[in-house]
Amino acid sequence: MQAGTVMNKSAGLIRVLIVDDHQLCREGLHVQLESQVDFTVVGEAANADEGLSEALRHKPDLVLMDIEMPGVSCFDTIRRIHEQLPGTKVVILSGHTNDEQISQAVKAQAQGYAVKEEGFAQVCKAIRDVMCGKMHYAQEVLDRIKTSNGQLTFDSHPHTRLETLTPRERELLVLLAQGYSLKEAGKALHVSYKTVDKHKVNLMKKLDIHDRVELALFAVREGLVQPQSHRPSSGLR
Question: Which CATH class is domain 162-229?
Fold first, then answer.
């Protein structure tokens, strides 16, 4: 680009939406992405639910999404983005590479999985690779998945209790482990109290867990939530 040339940031660039619950991370990524000649940031969101709304509003080329956020699971949001915006790509940005996160990322068909400790250059590479039609998963993630006919599959461990849950039951588990009441969880999942209560009964029966604290500990052990994401709650109702 020649000196003095003013680039039209709304045309010809990769339009990125940033979804991260940490404001400092969002602001840092925003500034860094805008410093690249081929990116423009069209919006930001602080959680997965807001991320879907902003994606529908801006229709970005790519969503860069953190997966360790309180509230509705980012994996369900990724699936909804694919359903409602089939032209929009998703790159996950994570500080961890545990089996559960990798498995869910593959099932949600995220086109990329970047690890924060790899640095900003690898985030840029992930975005560019995905926008060129490639899959981009960090090497330590690739070491634990396999490719067959161009499709990624997680090299899973033997069947576990967690794998018996439906996607909705898994989402409710995350919310309950984070301290949401059933009423709050139903609102977050956009379902009635009766429906969310039914999911609660089913997931606790499958997991053989009937205590809030044990439920939270199980979710932490499985890598579904971080310990600090739990908030006090008066009970399961």
Answer: mainly alpha
Q: Is residue 146 within 8 Å of 152, Cβ to Cβ?
A: yes
Terminal C-alpha separation, the chain: 59
**Architecture of domain 14-154 in this structure:** 3-Layer(aba) Sandwich (3.40)
Give me the residues paired with residue 90 across strands: 63
What is the C-alpha to C-alpha distance for residues 201 and 10, in angstroms, rounded to an integer?
49
Supply the DSSP symbol for 7.
Answer: P
Quote the CA–CA distance of 181 and 136 in Å, as a whole number: 37
Q: Which range (56-60, 77-81, 134-138) has the least confidence?
A: 134-138
Specify the length of the chain in residues.
237
Q: Between 117 and 148, whose confidence is greater?
A: 117
CA distance 69 to 53: 16
| pLDDT tens-place string over residues 20-42 | 999 999 999 999 999 999 999 99
The pLDDT of residue 30 = 97
91 touches 111 (CB < 8 A): yes
Cβ atoms of residues 90 and 82 within 8 Å:
yes
Question: Would you say the CATH fold of 162-229 matches that of 14-154?
Answer: no
Q: Measured between alpha carbons, how far is 39 from 18 in angstroms, rounded to an integer?
A: 12
Q: Where are the domains of the chain?
A: 14-154, 162-229
